[in-house]
Design brief:
By secondary structure, the chain is of the alpha/beta class. Strand 11, helix 14 and strand 12 form a beta-alpha-beta unit. It is elongated.
Length: 581
C-alpha cells in the first residue's frame, strides 16, 4: 500500500477551495508518464507566468518493474513533452538518480508508445487494435471516474464503440464481435444518408424507375421523329451539299455544346445551393438545455464546444472558398461554351441565308430547337435512372451488411445465454462480489444484457437486499456506494488478470472520503490482504480527517513505510511541487 497523505489543519469547510495540495494530480502525473498526449488544457501547459508554463523546466522520471524482472525508466520533460527516453536496467534506481545511459532517447510520442507496449508485453492486448493506454484509467481512478463502474469520464460524450467493445474484451468476451456490430451499424447509417441525399438531389424514388424508363422511351421516339423530319427537308439541289457539309456539322457542334451548357448550369446550381448551407450552432441554447435538465455544463465543456464551433466555422469557410473557386471556374467554362454557341449560331444563320426557301428554313430551325430540348430532357431522365440504379446498389449493400449483423446478433445472443461458461467473466464476478461483501457486508452482482438495438449494455452493479436476495436496492445509485463499487471492480480486474501479464497497480483518489468508519477499516483490511496475496501496488490519497478511528476513537495512522508522500497546508512547501499552481 502506497499512501499520499495530506495533513490538513485548516478549516475543512474550505477544503475544496484552499486545500488543493496536488494529491489528485498524482494520477495525472502517472498518466503523463505513461505517455498520455497532452494539450494546452493540461495543467502542465495551462498554468503560465509571463505566457510561459510554470513547469517548463521540469523533467520527470517513472520507473516500472517489468515481468522480465528488469526495471524500465521513462524520462519525459515539459518543454519537449513529445520526446520520450527509455532506459532498461537490471536493478532499481537508487536515491532517485536518473540513468546515465538510455536505450532509446528523444523518441516521438507515437513511436514511444509502441516501444513501451513491447516492454510491458501485456497478454491482454496481444492481437488487439488498441494498446495498454485503453485500460490505464481503470488503474487511475480520479473523482470524476467514480460516477460509473464501466464508463470512465474520458468516454462521456463519446460513442459506445469507443469503450464498449474494449469492456466486453476486458470481461472475457469477444470485443471484436461487438466492434463489428457497431462498424456495420455505422456503415448502414452512412449508406442511408447517401441514399437520402440522392433521393433529395434528383427527386427520385426507386419504385418510379420503370415509369421513368417508359417516359424516356417516349422521348427517344420523339427524338427520332424530329431527326427524321430534319432528314426529310427537300432543299434545293444546289444547297444539299451546303446543308450536308456545313449545317449538319454545325448542328452536331451546337448539340454537343448545348449538352455541355446544360451540365454546367446544373452543376452551378448545385454548387450555389451548397454554399448557402452554413454551419450553425448556438452554444447558449445548449447551455439552456443543460440548465433545464439540471445538468452541470462546465467551463471546460464550453471551451471544447467553442473550439468545435471555431473549427467547424473554419472548415465551412475553407469549404466555401473551395466552392467559390469551383463556381468561378465553372462560370468561366460556361462563358466559353456560351460564347462558342453564339458564334456557331451566327455561322449557321449565315449558311442558312443561302437557302432560297424561307419556309423550309423556319421549319428547319424549329426542328433543331425541338431536338435540343429533347436532348436535355433525355439527359435529365438518364441522370435520374443512374441515381436510382446507384440507390438500388446501395440498398443491396445494406442487405449484405444486415445479413452480417444478423449473424453477429445471433452470436451475441448465444454468448449472453452462456455467460456461466466464461471462466474469466465468472472469476471477475466472484472476486467483485467477494470484495464488495468484505467492505460493505452486502451482496453486489455484475451483469450485462442486450438492449433493443441488440447492442451490449453494461448494467450498473446491483446491490442486493439482505432481507430478500431477489430484490435490488437503490444503494448502487448513491455516490459513496458507487465509489466502492468502482473500487471492487478495479480490484477484481487486477486480481483476475494477475496470473498473466497485466497492470499490477491501481490509484484511487480520496477513496476514504465520505465513508463510514467501519467501511474505511474494512476497506483498508481488504487492500492489505490483496496487495500481499496478489503482489499488487495500491496507491491511495487521503487527508488526515478521513483516516479511520479505532475503538478508542483515536486516529489509525498509516505505517511509515506505507506513506510515500506527505503533503501539508502549512505553507506552499507542503504542496506536490512546492509552489502554488
Amino acid at each position: 500500500m502506497n499512501v499520499i497523505y495530506a495533513d490538513v489543519k485548516s478549516d475543512l469547510k474550505e477544503k475544496k477551495n484552499s486545500h488543493d495540495l496536488g494529491k489528485t494530480k498524482i494520477a495525472d502525473l502517472i498518466d503523463f508518464m505513461l505517455l498520455k498526449e497532452i494539450n494546452k488544457h493540461h495543467f502542465f501547459l495551462k498554468i503560465k507566468e509571463n505566457d510561459i508554463s510554470v513547469f517548463i523546466n521540469h523533467v520527470f522520471y517513472l520507473e516500472l518493474y517489468l515481468n522480465s524482472n528488469e526495471f524500465l525508466t521513462i524520462k519525459r520533460d515539459i518543454e519537449s513533452n513529445t520526446k520520450i527516453s527509455f532506459a532498461l536496467q537490471n536493478q532499481t534506481t537508487k536515491d532517485y538518480l536518473p540513468p546515465l545511459n538510455w536505450n532509446h532517447e528523444n523518441i516521438t510520442l507515437k513511436k514511444a508508445r509502441n516501444i513501451l507496449s513491447e516492454y510491458l508485453s501485456f497478454d491482454f492486448f496481444h492481437n488487439k487494435d488498441y494498446n495498454y493506454r485503453k485500460s490505464i484509467s481503470y488503474s487511475l481512478r480520479t473523482q470524476d471516474d467514480f460516477k460509473d463502474v464501466y464508463k470512465l469520464n474520458k468516454f462521456v460524450g463519446g460513442k459506445d464503440v469507443d469503450w464498449k467493445p474494449f469492456m466486453f474484451d476486458l470481461l472475457g468476451f469477444k470485443g471484436e464481435l461487438l466492434r463489428l456490430k457497431y462498424d456495420n451499424d455505422s456503415k448502414i447509417e452512412d449508406i442511408k444518408s447517401l441514399i437520402n441525399s440522392y433521393k433529395s438531389d434528383y427527386s427520385v424514388k426507386v419504385e418510379d424507375r420503370d415509369e421513368i424508363i417508359a417516359e424516356r422511351a417516349i422521348l427517344e421516339n420523339d427524338y427520332k421523329e424530329v431527326e427524321e423530319q430534319i432528314d426529310r427537308f427537300n432543299f434545293y439541289q444546289q444547297d444539299k451539299s451546303l446543308i450536308k457539309e456545313g449545317i449538319d456539322e454545325l448542328e452536331n457542334k451546337i448539340s454537343n455544346f448545348n449538352s455541355d451548357s446544360y451540365k454546367l448550369n446544373y452543376e452551378l446550381d448545385k454548387l450555389k445551393t451548397s454554399i448557402k448551407n452554413n454551419f450553425s450552432f448556438d452554444i447558449e441554447k445548449v447551455k439552456k438545455v443543460f440548465e433545464e435538465t439540471s445538468i452541470y455544463f462546465s467551463e471546460q465543456l464550453t471551451s471544447d464546444y467553442e473550439e468545435l464551433m471555431t473549427f467547424n466555422k473554419k472548415l465551412t469557410t475553407e469549404r466555401n472558398k473551395l466552392l467559390k473557386s469551383t463556381i468561378i471556374e465553372k462560370e468561366k467554362e460556361l462563358k466559353v461554351v456560351n460564347s462558342k454557341l453564339e458564334s456557331l449560331h451566327h455561322e449557321r444563320e449565315s449558311l442558312l441565308t443561302h437557302l432560297t426557301d424561307s419556309d423550309t428554313f423556319t421549319k428547319f430551325k424549329k426542328c433543331q430547337k425541338d431536338l435540343v430540348k429533347v436532348e436535355g430532357q433525355l439527359l435529365k431522365f438518364q441522370e435520374k435512372i443512374n441515381a436510382i440504379d446507384l440507390i438500388i446498389k446501395k440498398d443491396n449493400e445494406i442487405e449484405t451488411l444486415q445479413t452480417g449483423i444478423k449473424s453477429t446478433i445471433s452470436e451475441l445472443k448465444k454468448i449472453h445465454q452462456s455467460t456461466d461458461k466464461n471462466q474469466k467473466y465468472n472469476e471477475i464476478r466472484i472476486l467483485f462480489s467477494k470484495f464488495y461483501k468484505h467492505i460493505m457486508d452486502e451482496n453486489a452482482v455484475l451483469s450485462w444484457n442486450l438492449n433493443t438495438n441488440n447492442n451490449v449494455d453494461f448494467i450498473s452493479p446491483k446491490v442486493k437486499s439482505k432481507i430478500d436476495e431477489s430484490k435490488d436496492t437503490a444503494k448502487d445509485e448513491g455516490n459513496t456506494y458507487m465509489k466502492l463499487l468502482c473500487v471492487a471492480f478495479d480490484l477484481s480486474i487486477l486480481c483476475a488478470y494477475n496470473k498473466e501479464s497485466y497492470y499490477r497497480f491501481v490509484y484511487h483518489d480520496d477513496v476514504l472520503s465520505q465513508q463510514d468508519n467501519g467501511i474505511k477499516i474494512r476497506l483498508l483490511e481488504l487492500i492489505n490482504d490483496i496487495t500481499k496475496k496478489y503482489k499488487l501496488q495500491y496507491i491511495l490519497s487521503a487527508i488526515k480527517s478521513d483516516l479511520p478511528l479505532d475503538i478508542s476513537n483515536e486516529i489509525q495512522d498509516f505505517k511509515d513505510n506505507e506513506i510515500i508522500l506527505k503533503l501539508h497546508d502549512k505553507d506552499i512547501s507542503g504542496t506536490l511541487f512546492g509552489f502554488e499552481f
